[in-house]
Amino acid sequence: MSSTAINPSEWVSRYSDYLFNYTITRVNDRELAQDLISETFLAALKAKDNFKGEAHERTWLISILKRKIIDYYRKSNSAKGKAEVRMPDYQDEEGSWLEQRVADPYDKTAEDNLENTELSLAIMDCLALLPPKQAQIFKLKTIDEFDTEVICNDLKITASNLWVMIHRARKAMMDCMKKSWLD
């Protein structure tokens, strides 16, 4: 794919659902997710001449979106802004746990779309039931795969405290998902 092959006029119809599902699991706020995606499209439009064609358009957009999400968390934790913020590298064919469950938009049926939306909503609903700090730690460690040390430094907690909260959050999420998704 060359840089002339990208088609910004198709980005919203082709990638917005995928980008939204990716974002909502990381920020758990629909309006913020939509804002971040809009910022991503704008940044990509400004940088489209820099697109080398070495990756698929969607992969390129995800990399821009990741930077937008990181910037959001850095700004929201401004007192902790100097801390290192890491997110897993997106790998097109070998994505992380969540990317594997957010179906590829090129390989979806109507049933897949409905199931994916329902799963995303169930995850968001279950996250919303967790105590705020537990939900934040769960997202940082389990979804965004931040290092334990980074989370502990940012939140000023011990590693053992983090693991207790992760254990409780995972148990609560499992119980909630069993009730809301599997039943």
TrEMBL record:
Domain called RNA polymerase sigma factor 70 region 4 type: residue spans: 121-173
SUPFAM superfamilies xref list: Sigma2 domain of RNA polymerase sigma factors, Sigma3 and sigma4 domains of RNA polymerase sigma factors
Superkingdom of origin organism: Bacteria
Residue intervals of the RNA polymerase sigma-70 region domain: 12-77
Keywords: DNA-binding, Sigma factor, Transcription, Transcription regulation
Annotated InterPro entries: RNA_pol_sigma-70-like (IPR039425), RNA_pol_sigma-70_dom (IPR014284), RNA_pol_sigma70_r2 (IPR007627), RNA_pol_sigma70_r4_t2 (IPR013249), RNA_pol_sigma_r2 (IPR013325), RNA_pol_sigma_r3/r4-like (IPR013324), WH-like_DNA-bd_sf (IPR036388)
Family membership: Belongs to the sigma-70 factor family. ECF subfamily.
NCBIfam families: sigma70-ECF
Name of this chain's protein: Sigma-70 family RNA polymerase sigma factor
Phylogenetic placement of the source organism: Bacteria, Pseudomonadati, Bacteroidota, Flavobacteriia, Flavobacteriales
